[in-house]
Amino acid sequence: MEYILETKNIEKKYGKFKALNNINMHIPKGAIYGLIGKNGAGKTTLIRIISGLQKPTSGEYAIYGISSNSKKIVEARKRLGGIVETPSICLDMTAEDNLKEQYKVIGLPSYDNLQEILKLVRLNDTGKKKANHFSLGMKQRLGLAIALVGNPDLLILDEPINGLDPEGIIEIRELILRLNKEKNITFLISSHYLDELSKIATCYGIINKGKIIKEINKEELEQNFRIRTQINVTNLKECVKYLEEKGLKYKVISNDIIDIYEKINVTELVIALSKRNCIVNDFQEKGESLENYYLNLIGGAEND
Ligand code: ATP
């Protein structure tokens, strides 16, 4: 697998406190990598190190295989763009002027692709409106547009939907997916909104107390989700007998509710049970969420 960014044993100490401890992270090219962890887990520190805003105490990272210890890293870092903390927007400027400023900062000789970038983030019709009159969602999209100047391959977004209303969240989600599919941009996104992240992420890194405790891709995660069917029955005893005979894994939840932890044919089950004088009043398929998976993992790690 080709990794656009890898970290090797990154450690960051603040005095005696280890904020990052042997971080090994792998971001595949083309991925939307969700970085998950609670407050203080070390996400921002890690992101700042990768973005070149802070130096690790030890360890290294590589962008397209170029080590952070090599002189070529300065060139390689140009393939990264990002919004870390607040986007670098000038509020008394229009969207277009903000972008022009970024072209100058990066040292690009002409405003090539400027209109295309404005269109991509749907800010091409904001005309003379200054950024201080933009909604939070528009400001966030402008931040993304600024990060897109210079054609990065990897965009790093630290909490991109914080404070956005539902419409703003959908706009950012669609923009990220569009940039990923159409422009082949890889994303590293840290977010507390696990439900939202699970709608777009293709892989995850779970960080806890300065350590990456798990890297997992979407497919592996889905296999980990335990699907269960919860049934409500009139004759618990007969139902248990039937499940025992069939060798199905189950758990009795109450006098009339049983969880079955295997894929089952519900019609078959209903017919079989009705022959045994047991009616199925209700059934629901329940899947585990990313949040549950994360909480179980963190819970396990806390008990280490
Ligand atoms: P949040 O979601 O709250 O932003 P985070 O996962 O991004 O949390 P970091 O900001 O990376 O966490 O902080 C990791 C740990 O390092 C925290 O315990 C924090 O208090 C500590 N820390 C961060 N910066 C410094 C600093 N400059 N000096 C001392 N400790 C620091």
Describe the model:
Strands 7-8-9-4-10-11 form a six-stranded mixed beta sheet, with helices on both faces. It contains eleven helices and 15 strands. The protein has helices spanning 43-50, 73-76, 95-106, 114-120, 136-148, 166-182, 194-197, 218-224, 236-246, 266-274, 290-302, and strands spanning 3-14, 17-23, 26-28, 32-36, 58-63, 66-67, 80-83, 154-158, 186-190, 203-208, 211-217, 228-233, 250-252, 257-260, 280-286. The longest helix has 17 residues, at 166-182. With 304 residues, the chain is an alpha/beta fold. The model has no long low-confidence stretch (mean pLDDT 90). The chain has two domains: 3-223, 3-Layer(aba) Sandwich (Rossmann fold), CATH 3.40.50; 227-286, Alpha-Beta Plaits (2-Layer Sandwich), CATH 3.30.70.100. Helix 5 runs parallel beside helix 6. It is elongated. The structure holds adenosine-5'-triphosphate. Adenosine-5'-triphosphate binds at residues 14, 19, 37, 39-45.
Count of helical stretches: 11
Distance between the termini: 31 Å
Please report which band the strand proportion falls in: under 5%, 5-15%, 15-25%, 25-35%, 35-45% or over 45%.
25-35%
Per CATH, which architecture of the largest domain? 3-Layer(aba) Sandwich
Largest sheet: 6 strands, mixed
Overall residue-averaged pLDDT value: 90
The outline comes out as elongated
Bound molecules: adenosine-5'-triphosphate
Bin the helical content.
25-40%
How many domains? The number is: 2
Q: What fold name goes in the CATH topology slot of the largest domain?
A: Rossmann fold
**Helix and strand element order:** EEEEHEEHEHHHEHEHEEHEHEEHEH
